[in-house]
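A favour, since you know our structure tokens better than I do. Would you make up a two-line entry for one protein for me to read? Write everything out right here, beneath this request.
=====
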Amino acid sequence: MNSGRLAGLAAITVTSLLWGTTGTAATFATDVGPLAIGAATLGIGGLLQAAIAVPALRSSREALLLQKRTVIVGAIAVAIYPLAFYSSMHTAGVAVGSVVSLASAPLASGVLERFVDKRPLSRWWMLAAALGVLGSTLLCVSKIDGQAGSTTHTFLGIALGLVAGATYATYSWASHRLISDGIGRAASMGAVFGGGGLLLMPVLALTGAPLLTSPGNVAVAAYMALVPMFLGYLLFGYGLTKVPASTATTVTLTEPAIATVLAVLIVGERLSALGWTGLIVIAAVLLILTLAPTNSARASEATLAAVSGRREAA
């Protein structure tokens, strides 16, 4: 494995660890709704991404205008994702919401790459994706079995999680496509996440008042916007310059594992032996992606060609 791909996998793994804390952190703002949490975290985080990328956005303005359809699709997906994600966790619990959202993302990302980008997917990726879905399903089933009295809420949370997974895959694909088309990482991420942040501002204005009612709520919002979202997406953007979006979203299957462990240790949610088995299977996914070869020689060469020689200022 080349050092660039290993660095990309490491950056995305750290990102997923940071993201895995968001569901538990949100539980400390008990009187704040999921729409406000989602709009604040990714809305503010997205605008910060755009703010630090202003020079890159200016220099890449013409290229971004030529790719405006991809930017718009990515921005809309960024705006929808946190609303669906945090609503899913609020409705079905931290573990189930995280698991479904992240487990469905690699499949959606793979479909986009296969049918939109016409990029072949390797057998290693398909194995990792299948194991990731299996592990996540085990986690989800273990939680449903433990919450028989709230089946309706659980299935509503699952539906919202599927929306979150699809939009997560979409903005990951859009960002990676802009980068692969020669637009710098800072400009690509700044355009997609800045646009999504702008779209989330009306939602924040309508629902965000409870965020200011206590120092604890302010602290939760600040942590989630600055650490998992702002810092996390800086690392995620770096990772997308090194690996395809399908690989990136598959690596982030470690997020629901972290979220589940934190939900058990801190929030007090319970996990059965079936759920712990799911965590072990998800750990195997990361091991496979770390040790396996890239999708294909041609795809690897294309990725390297798109990234080489491009070291723009943040």
The mean pLDDT is 82. The two ends are 27 Å apart (CA to CA). The longest helix spans residues 151-180. DSSP finds 15 helices and no strands in the chain.
